[in-house]
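Inverse folding, one chain.
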């Protein structure tokens, strides 16, 4: 829905509210017209139900408002003496239209100074749970989101089994586009395995855009994405049907904020010219220098001297990240990820004859690599150069470069595009230039041969950015905790320092202080 459509929708909701409550406003000592004025009617309603004015803010926060609407419907009924469980049930099951009955059909009186204390322990528990969900949803959506590292694409910097806190406010919190969904879950409800949001999954259409979707809106952040930042973002090419299908023309769509969350390193920022040579990234012709905590990894073929070679031992002994395979009738081993540091030690292994990198040749086309066009002979090790779009910048568009930016122009920026002969039409007009509407980024994994990243799907628009990982609060290798990684920062230089002990000292100190203060208060 567009902002105009949302404005009309909100006005209709205000009219429905006014028609269903104006008599209740009068009975509460207010004027009938106050029930019809947008926002103001909410402030007055908070006074009527004896709740703080800032609740009106919660009514406009997507996802949170789904809970708050229910609370307000119930509180309105209770403010006019309808406290029974059946009244609460009717208020909820009728989606607030129970107020129409109270407004026109019931003989009710306003209870001005009603008690706000729950009438039972179950009511107290329900209220506590509801507001805990509201508070957690606000924190999760606008401040900090927990995230788990599922793959080894950033191994050495972030490990499989790291549990992160991802900051939403560094780059600016994105207002949820999907307005109707379950709180604090992503695209699927756990256990039930159902979609967590209102969604029309008709193939071959983008009809989900009409399902109460908010236009893109982001609260201003206090820093920009810098080159080599680790970033969490929604995967642009998430088809849902097949996670390995990264072709530009898909037949399955998801809302942006419900696409799969990924974490990669931003090696190219808007305005950069990027190229991959022999697996290494070059920015504006200069080799990209990674932070000291980052460790590039490539895959290698290993030729042993004898059958006494134990690859499992070698993998553990030399800190080789991913697994290995046997090829050529057990004469050669394939290791999928070895860092330069591990390679320097491993190459001197007494039972190793040779180690050779598994890299593709320059000029050999990989059909799975962006831009998926026969005129671009690119692969994971030799790629580019290409320009990363910057908001407001204009480039020349012709049939040669069109494959690089077709998806940006159509899917990410919402234009129509047609090619007739040698002419390009954007929004029905012939053109040879294009001005970008937003910034784009190039996200890659440090594990260069085991990372499904921008080399597969291309640019990541800024509206797909979720946040910045800032803290590892727990790490688990699948069997045992990695204590040295508990409470460590994601950024910074040098070896990461664990703040687990200082945290525990502060935690137990705070608990002890509260107990002492409570005991002192009781003694008085």
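Residues assigned per position:
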């Amino acid at each position: 829905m567009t902002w105009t459509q949302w404005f009309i929708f909100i006005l209709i909701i205000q009219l429905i509210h006014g028609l269903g409550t104006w008599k209740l406003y009068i009975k509460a000592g207010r004027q009938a017209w106050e029930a019809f004025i947008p926002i103001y009617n909410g402030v007055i309603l908070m006074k009527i139900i004896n709740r703080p004015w800032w609740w009106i803010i919660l009514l406009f926060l997507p996802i949170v408002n789904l809970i708050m609407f229910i609370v307000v419907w119930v509180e309105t009924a209770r403010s006019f003496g309808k406290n029974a469980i059946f009244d609460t049930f009717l208020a909820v099951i009728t989606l607030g239209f129970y107020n129409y009955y109270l407004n026109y059909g019931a003989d009710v009186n306003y209870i001005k100074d009603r008690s706000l204390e729950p009438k039972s322990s179950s009511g107290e528990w329900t209220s506590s749970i509801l507001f805990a969900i509201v508070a957690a949803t606000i924190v999760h959506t606008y401040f900090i989101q927990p995230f788990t590292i599922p793959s080894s694409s950033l191994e050495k910097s972030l490990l499989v089994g790291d549990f992160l806190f991802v900051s939403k406010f560094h780059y600016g919190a994105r207002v949820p586009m999907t307005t109707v969904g379950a709180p604090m879950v992503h695209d699927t409800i756990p256990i039930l395995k159902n979609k967590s949001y209102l969604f029309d999954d008709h193939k071959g259409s983008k009809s989900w855009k009409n399902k109460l979707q908010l236009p893109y809106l982001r609260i201003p952040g206090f820093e920009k994405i810098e080159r080599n930042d680790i970033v969490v973002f929604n995967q642009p090419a998430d088809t849902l049907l097949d996670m390995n299908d990264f072709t530009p023309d898909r037949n399955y769509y998801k809302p942006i904020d419900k696409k799969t969350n990924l974490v990669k390193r931003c090696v190219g920022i808007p305005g950069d010219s990027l190229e991959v040579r022999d697996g290494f990234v070059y920015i504006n012709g200069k080799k990209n220098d990674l932070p000291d905590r980052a460790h590039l990894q490539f895959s290698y073929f290993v030729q042993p001297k004898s059958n006494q070679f134990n690859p499992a031992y070698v993998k553990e002994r030399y800190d080789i990240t991913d697994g290995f395979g046997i090829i050529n009738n057990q004469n050669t081993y394939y290791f999928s990820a070895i860092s330069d540091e591990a390679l320097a030690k491993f190459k001197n292994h007494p039972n190793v004859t040779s180690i050779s990198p598994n890299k593709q040749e320059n000029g050999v086309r990989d059909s799975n690599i962006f831009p998926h066009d026969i005129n671009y002979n690119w692969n994971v090790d030799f790629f580019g150069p290409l320009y990363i779009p910057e908001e407001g910048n204009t480039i020349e568009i012709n049939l040669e470069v069109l494959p690089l930016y077709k998806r940006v122009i159509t899917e990410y920026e919402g234009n129509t595009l047609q090619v007739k002969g040698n002419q390009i039409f954007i929004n029905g007009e012939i053109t040879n230039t294009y001005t970008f509407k937003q910034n784009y980024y190039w996200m890659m994994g440090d594990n260069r041969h085991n990372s499904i990243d921008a080399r597969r799907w291309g640019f990541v628009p800024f509206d797909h950015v979720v946040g910045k990982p800032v803290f590892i609060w727990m790490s688990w290798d699948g069997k045992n905790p990695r204590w040295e990684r508990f409470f460590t920062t994601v950024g910074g230089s040098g070896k990461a320092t664990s703040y687990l002990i200082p945290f525990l000292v502060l935690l137990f100190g705070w608990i002890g202080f509260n107990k002492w203060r409570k005991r002192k208060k009781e003694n008085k």
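The chain has twelve helices and 23 strands. The two ends are 60 Å apart (CA to CA).
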